[in-house]
Amino acid sequence: MNDHIPVYDNIISAHNKIKPFIHKTPVFTSSSINSIVGNQLFFKCENFQKVGAFKYRGATNAVLTLQKDLLNRGVATHSSGNHAAALALAARTQNVPAYIVMPESSPQIKKQAVKGYGGEITFCEPTIEARESTLKKLVEKTGATFIHPYDNFDVVCGQGTAAKELLEAEPELEVLITPVGGGGLLSGSSISARFINSAIKVIGAEPENADDAYRSLKDGKLYPALKPNTIADGLLTSLSELTFSIIQKNVDEIITASERYIALAMRMIWERMKILIEPSSALPLAILLQHSDRFEKKKIGIILSGGNVDMDKINYLLSAGDITARTG
Q1: What are phi and psi of 256, to 5 degrees?
Q2: Are 196 and 120 found together in one domain?
Q3: What angle do CA 289, 295, 299 make, to 5 degrees?
């Protein structure tokens, strides 16, 4: 872990560095969803980012920041999701190898994405011990640099550029909500938000069935994720010391949502906005729906973190929590 904490100048530097490689994603609104939640929502659509997720920002910044001699040896990580694809593509843009350790149980769509971006996949058993031990052997063999999905200074700075773009477009936002898993997006976003608008309220959104970040912030003690069971499969990881320290300083609260409301929010965005998001992206809207009494007549920014949905699981995702579609 890095021994220092990013500041907004670091996010500005990261943004300048990655701009030639990333998409400046659009900000969408929905009058029908606004009328349902009683707030004015601004959706930063990172589902339209390269590789279909905000992760490309952090991975690209980390790759571009490496010294040339290290970069030429390649980069490596362990990931079952969007970070794996993001790092593979970021490495390909620099013509260096990306060595990716993936659990055998990883979604097929994610495996295909990593291969398509040129990543060299090594499969392992679906445990954190297997992931870490396999990665260690791979790094020793190749000399590649390990780029952690979120416990990395440069990754956090890259993730903070999404909120920077959102707040530059909508500087009068009163609330900013992002999903939280390992905390890279929330911590980076909180740094941008606090600098651009010191009065803004920053909130993390987390599944009730994977609420380690909620408990960590509430108790002031870092808890690991213990057997999380949620359709929001991008939010199964625990905070790191780095992301937790940033979140403790900058984030007002973390609010949780049930599986029913996660599925309901995801379906609502699919139907009302006609865009595809993955379950993890639905958490901010899910907490607004489930805890509507806590939000009223606010200008709220939401970062839709990604849109990589396993199409074979759509029926399962839509029926999660035995929900009934809400017509509003």
Answers
A1: -105, 160
A2: no
A3: 105
The count of C-alpha atoms lying within 13 angstroms of the C-alpha of 251, restricted to the half-sphere facing its C-beta, is 30
pTM for the model stands at 0.93
pLDDT in tens, 7-39: 999 999 999 999 999 999 999 999 999 999 999
pLDDT in tens, 114-166: 999 999 999 999 887 898 999 999 999 999 999 999 999 999 999 999 999 99
Query: For residues 15 and 164, is the Cβ–Cβ distance under 8 A?
Result: yes
In a shared domain, residues 75 and 208: no
Q: What is the DSSP letter of 99?
A: E
Q: Please check whether residues 83 and 187 belong to one and the same domain.
A: no
Whole domain around residue 160: which residue ranges? 8-53+152-322
Asked about 258 being catalytic, the answer comes back as: no
One of 44, 50, 79, 80 is an active-site residue; which one?
A: 80
Check 17, 44, 50, 55 and give the catalytic one: 55
Whether 55 sits among the annotated catalytic residues: the reply is yes
